[in-house]
From TrEMBL:
Signal peptide: none
SMART domains recorded: HTH_ARAC (SM00342)
Organism encoding this protein: Streptomyces flavofungini
Protein name per Swiss-Prot or TrEMBL: Helix-turn-helix domain-containing protein
Gene3D superfamilies: 3.40.50.880, Homeodomain-like
Organism superkingdom: Bacteria
CDD domains: GATase1_AraC_1 (cd03137)
Keywords: DNA-binding, Transcription, Transcription regulation
InterPro entries listed in its UniProt record: Class_I_gatase-like, DJ-1/PfpI, Homeodomain-like_sf, HTH_AraC, HTH_AraC-typ_CS, INH-QAR
C-alpha cells in the first residue's frame, strides 16, 4: 500500500460559492498536508482546474476566485481523482458540465485512476458513464435527481459512502471527510487513518453503511452520556461484552441503550462492537508481529477462524494478507500485547 498522487477537480475557479469550499477543502486537508511521522512520502496533491494555469479573472458575484496550477489533462496519470462538487447551474438549471471534464474523467479512469466523488460530484462521474451499473450515493437532497437523470446508476440515498473498488462516492459535507479517511485507511492502514483523524478531531471511522439520517430528536445530553460507556467498552474489547453489559454500565435498560446508540451513531450496539474489534485487529496486524490467534484474542474476535471470517467479510482480505501489506510496521514493533486496563 502507498499514498500516490491525488488530483482534485476544481469545477469553478471564478466566483466559487462559499458553501462549495467545504467539499473542496476536505481533500486538501486530508491529502494536502504532509504527515511525515505517519507516512513518508505522503500524498502528492494536485488541484486541477478547468482552465488550470490560466490568467486570473475578476470574480463575478458572490464567492471566491481560485487559481489552480494544473488543468484537466493532469487528471490522467493521477492515482486518485476526486470531484468534490459540480456547479450549481448544472443541478438547478440543467446546464452542461464544464467543457472537457467528462472526457478527462473518462480518460483518467481508462488510465487506471481510482475515481471518487464527494456530495454532488457524483453527477460528473455519472455523466462520464463511470457509475453505470454501480451502486452510488450523493447528498440525500440530490439523490432523486441523480437517479432520474442517470437511471443506469443504482442510487442509494441511505448511506454515508459507497466503496465500489475503483469508483467511490459519498454523501454531502462530513460524509466526504469520512470517505477521504476511508481512502487513507485503504492506502496506509487503520493506524495512520486513526492518527490523522485524531489530529483533525473527528471520529476515526464511520462505516460507509451508516445511515445519512441521524435521529436529531435525541437530546445532545444523550449523545454525551454515551461517550463514557463507549470509551469503557473500547478499553475492554478483549473481554466478552453484551448489550446488557453496556446498558448496565450506562445505567439504562437494554432497550433504551439500543435505541439511543442507534439514534446517535446510525448502527446497532452489536455492529458497533464488531466495528471496534475489527479496527483493533487491523491496528494490531499493522503494528505488531503477534500471532493471528493472539490478535483474535486481544481484539475480542475470539479464535483465529472467527477473526478470518469477519476479516474476509468486512475487509475483503484475510488477516495474513492484510498484515503482509505492512511488513515494516509489524516488524518494527515488539511482539507484545498492549497494556490491559485495570
Amino acid at each position: 500500500m502507498s499514498a500516490g498522487s491525488v488530483a482534485v477537480v476544481v469545477t469553478e475557479e471564478i466566483g466559487v460559492p462559499s458553501w462549495d469550499l467545504y467539499e473542496l477543502s476536505i481533500p486538501c486537508t486530508v491529502f494536502g498536508k504532509p504527515q511525515p511521522d505517519l507516512a513518508d512520502p505522503w500524498y502528492d496533491l494536485r488541484l486541477c482546474g478547468i482552465t488550470g494555469g490560466g490568467e486570473d479573472d475578476a470574480a463575478t458575484g458572490a464567492g471566491f476566485s481560485l487559481r489552480t496550477p494544473y488543468g484537466l489533462d493532469d487528471l490522467v496519470g493521477a492515482d486518485t481523482v476526486i470531484v468534490p462538487s459540480v456547479p450549481d447551474a448544472c443541478l438547478e438549471e440543467g446546464a452542461p458540465l464544464p467543457p472537457g471534464l467528462v472526457d478527462a474523467l473518462r480518460r483518467a479512469h481508462a488510465a487506471g485512476a481510482r475515481m471518487v466523488s464527494l456530495c454532488n460530484g457524483a453527477f460528473a462521474l455519472a455523466a462520464a458513464g463511470l457509475l453505470d451499473g454501480r451502486r452510488a450515493t450523493a447528498h440525500w437532497q440530490h439523490t432523486a435527481q441523480l437517479a432520474a437523470r442517470h437511471p443506469r446508476v443504482r442510487v442509494d440515498d441511505s448511506v454515508l459512502y459507497v466503496d465500489d473498488g475503483d469508483v467511490l462516492t459519498s454523501a454531502g459535507l462530513t460524509a466526504g471527510l469520512d470517505l477521504c479517511l476511508h481512502l487513507v485507511r485503504r492506502d496506509l492502514g487503520a493506524h495512520v487513518a486513526n492518527q490523522l483523524a485524531r489530529r483533525m478531531v473527528v471520529p476515526a471511522h464511520r462505516p460507509g453503511g451508516q445511515a445519512q439520517f441521524i435521529d436529531l430528536s435525541v437530546p445532545a445530553t444523550d449523545d454525551a452520556g454515551l461517550s463514557p460507556v463507549l470509551e469503557w467498552a473500547r478499553e475492554r474489547l478483549d473481554q466478552p461484552l453484551t448489550v446488557t453489559d453496556l446498558a448496565r454500565r450506562a445505567a439504562m435498560s437494554p432497550r433504551t441503550f439500543y435505541r439511543r446508540l442507534q439514534a446517535a451513531t446510525g448502527t446497532t450496539p452489536l455492529q458497533w462492537l464488531l466495528n471496534q474489534r475489527l479496527a483493533r485487529a487491523q491496528s494490531l496486524l499493522e503494528s505488531t508481529g503477534l500471532p493471528i490467534e493472539k490478535v483474535g484474542e486481544l481484539s475480542g474476535l475470539g479464535t483465529a477462524n472467527n477473526l478470518r471470517h469477519h476479516f474476509l467479510k468486512q475487509v475483503g482480505v484475510s488477516p495474513s494478507d492484510y498484515r503482509r501489506a505492512f511488513p515494516q510496521l509489524s516488524a518494527a514493533v515488539p511482539d507484545r500485547a498492549p497494556a490491559r486496563p485495570a
